[in-house]
Give the backbone structure.
Amino acid sequence: MILSLTVAVLVTGGVYLLLQRSMVRAVFGMTLLSHAANFVLLASGVPGWRAEPLTDLSARADMADPLPQAFVLTAIVITMAVTIFMLTLAVIGRDDDMSRHPATGESRDS
């Protein structure tokens, strides 16, 4: 129940931040959504009754599935790279609202 509530809070916060006008907030919203997806992936492959995989005391069927864990690790690395790229674009394109035309210098309001 706690994990599902955590995913719900992360998705809600991510969607709220994505709907904001600021590019930095949109980047943080995408990051929150990716964390929520990571929690869902991790929850799908790690049951609460799992056994330790390195000891010979349990059967293979009782051990945790390593594939969702590998997916989550890969997703974390990809999310970090995309977040850095998007933050770089947010810094470079700070004045992307086009309040004035770049060629003529005229204001949009006039």
